[in-house]
Amino acid sequence: MTDQEIIKLFPEPIFKYHLKDHQNLNKELSKYIYDLRDQENIGLRRSNKGGWHSKNFKLGFKGTVQHKFALEMQKYIINVFQNYGWKTKDVDIRIKEMWAIINKKDDFNVIHTHPNCYLSAAYYVKAPKNCGRFQIECPNIARRYAYPEVERKNELNIEVAGIDVEEGDLLLFPGYLPHKVAKNESDNDRIVISFNVDVK
């Protein structure tokens, strides 16, 4: 076959960053998150199966580690807006809410989306080996209704994709993108901070 061209339209992006000097920040964040868990041991029930889900962080207190972290996230959020070609000048882009999840061995998160926001994020405070991949499902539901038998997996027929992560990684993605977290198969905690971004 000659002169073939595959035109790929409407991509679904995941923006992945790695914070270079994340070690000290992650130590502070770990302490903050474990302190929250000690204060409120039961936690919330959202997409987590097992694990501990915090209430929303109180971001308004200047000088706190969570406020410092939120400020650090701003440049990455702006970068994603710029990549999308969205307006950033004279626009009140904000972190709407932020929380943490601690997944112990065998804990995982079921498929879910984050409604009423433009972007969602996952930042990896603790990510031991085999702690559970970040997985995305194709949001095009029509593709699942009928298709021939798949002989080999490729980017045109895949329904679920996974991303390997390590400590200091930050993922930013559209809030409507269905995502989940695979089971933590390590013996150590996996700690993730998630947040949603909108325009006020």
Helices and strands, with pairings:
Blueprint: E1 15-18, H1 23-39, E2 48-49, E3 52-53, H2 65-84, E4 93-103, E5 108-112, E6 119-126, E7 134-137, E8 160-163, E9 169-174, E10 179-181, E11 190-199
Antiparallel strand pairs: 1-9, 2-5, 3-4, 4-11, 5-10, 6-9, 6-11, 7-8, 7-10
Account of the protein in words:
Helix content is 18%, strand content 30%. It has two helices and eleven strands. Strands 1-9-6-11-4-3 form a six-stranded antiparallel sheet. The longest helix has 20 residues, at 65-84. The chain starts with 14 loop residues before the first strand and ends with a strand.
- Report the major sheet: 6 strands, antiparallel
- From the 3D structure, determine the CATH topology: Jelly Rolls
Alpha-carbon distance between the two ends: 52 Å
- Helical content class: 10-25%
Strand order of the largest sheet: 1-9-6-11-4-3
Tally of discrete structural domains: 1
Counting helices, strands and paired strands, the structural category is alpha+beta
Which percent band covers the strand fraction?
25-35%
Radius of gyration: 18 Å
The chain-level mean pLDDT equals 96
CATH class: Mainly Beta
The outline comes out as globular
Number of helices: 2
Count of strand segments: 11
Low-confidence stretches: none
